[in-house]
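HUMAN: Can I see a protein plus its fold?

ASSISTANT:
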Amino acid sequence: MGQILQGKPVALALSQQLKERVADMRRQGKTPRLAIVRLGEAPDDIAYEKSAIKCCRDHEVDVQSIVLPAGTGEEQLLAHLQAVNDDKQTDGCLLLKPLPPGIRESKAAEALAPQKDVDGITPGSLAHLCGLDIAGFPPCTAQACLEILDHYQIDAAGKRAVIIGRSLVVGKPLAMLLLARNATVTVCHSKTKDLPAVVREADIVVAAMGRARLLGAEYFRPGQIVLDVGINFDDQGKMCGDVDFAQVEPIVAAITPVPGGVGAVTNRVLLKHVVDAAQRVLG
C-alpha cells in the first residue's frame, strides 16, 4: 500500500510559518495585502475568491476584491491592473481566469507587474522561472507540488520526473522548478508515443492532463512517487484526479489523493507569495 501524501499537513505547516512571518511584519508596520480582480459572476471564480479571502483573513493578510462587470472591455481591465501596479499598499494581485470573450489573456498578463503577480501568469514570472533576474513567482499549483515534496522529505535531485501535461499553469513551470532541483525531467503530452512505458520509467510522476482517471495500473510500477494535479468529476459527480487512485495506490510508494492533495496546498502557496512580495518591500 502506498503512502498517502495528504495536503492538509502541508497546508497547516505553511500556515504556521506564514502566521509567524505576518506577525513579525505587522510589528514592523507592514501588513501584506492582496488584490483579487474578478470579471463577472462565474460560480467557480466566486468560490475561488471566497476561499482566497478566507485564507487571507485567517492569516491577518489584508485583501481587496475588485469586481468588474462581465462586459468590461480590455482597456478598462488594463487600467484597473495598472492601478494595482501603482498602489504601493498592494503587494500581490490575483487575476481570476478565464477572462470573458473579447479580452486577451496575453494582454492582461503583460499589463500586470511581475513583482505583484502572485499566481505566475506574467511573461516576467515565466522568465524568472527560466533563471533570469526578474521578480516573479511560479504558478501556485506548480509550487504546491514542490511544497508537498519538501514536507514529505522527497528529494528530486537525481531522480527521473515525468510530467503529463504541458500547460503554462502546471506542466511547463513545474518542469523548470524540478530542473532547478536537479531532477531529469520529461514532459509528456497527447502526441507522446507509448505513454505508459514512458511513465513507468519515472521516479516521480506528475499527472496534469485534466482527464478523469485516465492513468490506470498499467502506467505505474512499485517505488514511484505520484502527484495527481487533476481536478475532474466523474459520471456520478464525484471529484477525482487524472490517476485511477483505487488501481494505482496499492502499486506505488506514495500518491496524493484527489480531493485532499495538491489542491489543499494551493491557497497557502498563493498566500506565501503575497507575504514574499510584501517582504521584498520591507527589504
